[in-house]
Model the fold of this input.
Amino acid sequence: MANNFFKFKQFTIHQERCAMKVGTDGVLIAAWANFDNARTILDVGCGTGLISIIAAQRNPYARITGVDIDSDAVEQAAQNAYDTEWRERIEIINSDICLFDNVRYDVIVSNPPYFTEQIKSPDKSRSIARSCDTLDYKRLIEKSAEILNESGRLSIILPYNYYEEVIEHGINNKLYPERVAKVYPLPDSNVKRVMVELSRDQKDTVYEDIVIEKSRHNYSDEYIKLTKDFYLKM
Done:
C-alpha cells in the first residue's frame, strides 16, 4: 500500500485521495523544467500538486496554476499547496485544459498520462490519470501552442518510445525542441523516460543524459544535483 503522505525538505504531500502518487517522474520534470523569468506557470494534470509546489519553491515570483479533472485530487492538491509557505501564489482548479481560452502562460509543465492499453485499471480515477483517453500528449501540445506566450515553454516527461512522435507533433504545431534529457534508471540500462522542452524558437537543441542510480540506492551525482533541494535524504 502506498504511503498516505510523502515528506520533502520544505513541504509534505498528502496523497490518499489522489489516483497517482508521488513518483520519480513528477519530481524529475519539476526539478528539470526551466522556470527562469516565468511569471505564470501552468501545471497540467497536477494530481497531488507536487509539480506546482516545486515550481513555487524554485521560482519565488511566479504565480502557479495547477489544473486537473479529478475533483478529489484537486481538493487534496489545494490543501497541499495551502499548507506550504507559497500558498498565496498557487491556485489549484478543477477543469479541463481543453476549455482554457483567453489565457496565456510563460511555462506549461506536465507529467501527462501515457498508458494506452485496452485494459484499464479497475480503479476509475487511476485509469483516467494514466490513460490517454482523456488527455494525451498530442492534445497537450496542440493546446499549449494556443496558450503559451510568444517566448513560452512547454516541458513534459514521457516514456522514451513516444519521443519521436512528440518532437514531430511539436514541430507540426510550431513548437521546437529546445532541451532534451534522456533518463536512464542505471548506467547500463536502456533509456526509460525522456524530458522535452518545446518553445517557438528554432535553435540548436541542447541534449543531456540523466542516470538516476549508479547502483541500487546509490544515486548519481547529476540526479542528486537536480533533486537535492527537495528530497529529504539527498
User: Anything to note?
Assistant: The first helix runs from residue 24 to 32. Residues 115-122, 124-133 have pLDDT under 50 and may be disordered. The radius of gyration is 17 Å. The helical segments are 24-32, 50-58, 71-82, 124-130, 137-147, 163-172, 221-227.
